[in-house]
TrEMBL record:
Pfam families: ABC_tran
Domain of life: Bacteria
Range of residues in the leader sequence: none
Keyword Transport: yes
Chain ranges of the ABC transporter domain: 12-247
UniProt protein name: ATP-binding cassette domain-containing protein
UniProt xrefs under InterPro entries: AAA+_ATPase, ABC_transporter-like_ATP-bd, ABC_transporter-like_CS, P-loop_NTPase
GO molecular function, one term: ATP binding
SMART domains documented for this protein: AAA (SM00382)
The entry's keywords: ATP-binding, Nucleotide-binding, Transport
Length: 265
């Protein structure tokens, strides 16, 4: 959890960060500050390094250069310190990650069981509150296979906020959802951010669904940040890279086949 002394630091700060994977540089020269309380959309084409950026925030990936800070503290490398930091970061992964042989309530209780010594009755109450927060009060006894895609995503979200983390990271939270379920999830992300006083970072290529709830947008392409600013500045940008990305055009300054080339290598 953040120290009182770090109250002025941004929720996340990257300074001169380089991230390598499989012996290849994925992102370089990354400077980014995410203000506390904001919702930041990290946009970019497939394979541009959005998930890689999140991996650096959770300490899963150690930067090859530069510094990554969360609430004013450098992301530690020592396992024990890293586990402590991770309690303050809620992550909603692309595939929900729900355990299929546990009910929704049991899934949400998992982080509470793993990281607290709270009595069973208190955990049950907290689980109820989290289900309520995502609008699924009566779904606790359902198994993941009994949930629609949108409901499963909401249960995963309830589990991600189980420990009341001040920082939420969303990796493609809208993938596989129909427009109605997408709307429910984006509203929930925004509402939870405001109501619980969180900071949220949403990695996505669903630009038009995500920008309405974002305070800030960051676009990464060709291994670097090509835009950082407000959603309206993004829409108004005449940077060729940004325009190509927003319009989804295959030809232009963004090398869209980067990921494919890497997989073949
Ligand atoms: N564990 C890994 N080892 C080696 N290379 C990796 C690893 N994970 C990702 N990469 C490569 O790093 C690059 C960036 O991947 P990343 O998943 O961060 O992109 P992304 O922008 O999140 O893509 P998507 O939108 O498709 O999820 C890709 O070229 C990918 O092949």
């Amino acid at each position: 959890m953040p120290d009182a002394a770090d109250n002025d630091a941004p929720a996340v700060r990257l300074t001169g960060v380089r991230l390598d994977r499989g012996g290849r540089t994925i992102l370089d020269g990354i400077d980014l500050a995410v203000p506390r309380g904001s919702v930041t959309a990290v946009l970019g084409p497939s394979g541009s390094g959005k998930s890689t950026l999140l991996a650096a925030l959770t300490g899963e990936l150690v930067p090859a250069a530069g510094r990554v800070e969360v609430f004013g503290q450098a992301v530690p490398q020592r396992t024990r310190d890293l586990l402590e930091l991770r309690k303050s970061i809620g992550v909603l992964l692309q595939g929900n990650g729900l355990l299929t042989d546990l009910t929704s309530a049991e899934n949400i209780a998992l982080p509470l069981r793993a990281h607290t010594r709270l009595p069973r009755a208190v955990i049950d109450r907290l689980v109820e509150m989290k289900l309520h927060a995502v609008g699924l009060r009566s779904a606790g006894e359902l198994y993941p296979r009994e949930l629609s895609g949108g409901m499963a995503r909401r249960v995963a979200l309830a589990r991600a906020i189980a420990l009341d983390p001040p920082l939420m990271l969303y990796d493609e939270p809208l993938t596989g959802l129909d427009p109605i379920a997408s709307g429910v999830i984006t509203n929930l992300i925004s509402e939870l951010n405001d109501r619980l006083g969180l900071t949220s970072i949403i990695v996505t290529h669903h630009v038009h669904e995500t920008l309405p709830i974002a305070d800030r947008a960051v676009v990464i392409a060709n291994g670097r940040i090509v835009f950082a600013g407000s959603p309206s500045e993004l829409e108004a940008s005449d940077d060729p890279l940004v325009r190509q990305f927003l319009r989804g055009e295959p030809d232009g300054p963004i090398a869209f086949d980067t990921a494919r080339r890497t997989e073949a290598a």
